[in-house]
Amino acid sequence: MISKDQFEKEIDLIITNAVREDIGDGDHSSLACIPANATGKAKLLVKDTGILAGVDFALMVFEKVDPYLKTEVLIKDGSQMNPRDVAFYVEGNSQSILKAERLVLNAMQRMSAIATKTKQFADKLEGTKTKILDTRKTTPGIRALEKWAVKIGGGENHRFGLYDMIMLKDNHIDFAGGVTKAIQKTKEYLRINDLDLKIIVEARDLNEIKEILESEGVYRILIDNFNYEDTRTAVELINGKCQTESSGGITLETARQYAECGVDYISSGALTHSVHNKDLSLKAI
What we know:
Layout: H1 4-23, H2 28-33, E1 39-46, E2 50-51, H3 55-65, E3 70-73, E4 80-81, E5 86-93, H4 94-124, E6 131-133, H5 143-152, E7 166-168, H6 170-176, H7 179-192, E8 199-203, H8 206-213, E9 220-224, H9 228-238, E10 243-247, H10 252-259, E11 265-267, H11 270-273, E12 280-284
Parallel strand pairs: 6-11, 7-8, 8-9, 9-10, 10-11
Antiparallel strand pairs: 1-5, 1-12, 2-4, 3-5
Protein name: Probable nicotinate-nucleotide pyrophosphorylase [carboxylating]
GO molecular function: nicotinate-nucleotide diphosphorylase (carboxylating) activity
Function: Involved in the catabolism of quinolinic acid (QA).
């Protein structure tokens, strides 16, 4: 996974680019009718149920737009939210509040949806050893926000991108000439380039599970699109030699049954690619 410093740089880039995209050469609506020295106060009003996420991000946005804005947080990230709740107040220059408004709402609405979905999966897995993981199926440009929301919802992050972990999937294996060749070539590549990256290998059937186990240095086996019975068999074959991860169309309805097969992780792209934004608004008071 990426370091804390790298993650913070990603968040700063997201804010910088979003402000540039939205404000351009000026918020002319506000400039036209609100005096430059006008001050005001607004509240983040919740209109939905779920897990609140993005409060800390909102504070970073306000700080970036105008460090003189003052905030009072009433509900923290990861908390249950309900209609009519007030998550926080922001007070200061009115033009600054309006500049930050849409970025704050866009981010918090999506992050809260992702955190809510993740919490649903985490609750389903409660009592098992299995943890829920996200994937790279994220919105381009805001991956750091979406993965942050997964953590807030009680999940764990998979690799951040193509650079922080090796993941040999079906196409890699086929292009490389098979499972064993793909693993051998990868280990040689890491050695030559002096890279210390974990290796995950996808298996499409039990025969590939057995073949992967013949190679040393595999960190995790991705048990992809297996049924329950074959998943249990795969876990028995692996027998703790490396970590295990189930993936492939796993839903809230089926997650518990896969967890009970004994896998360490379940990964689901649905955490980030199939959510409906939560309803939040920023209202002047």
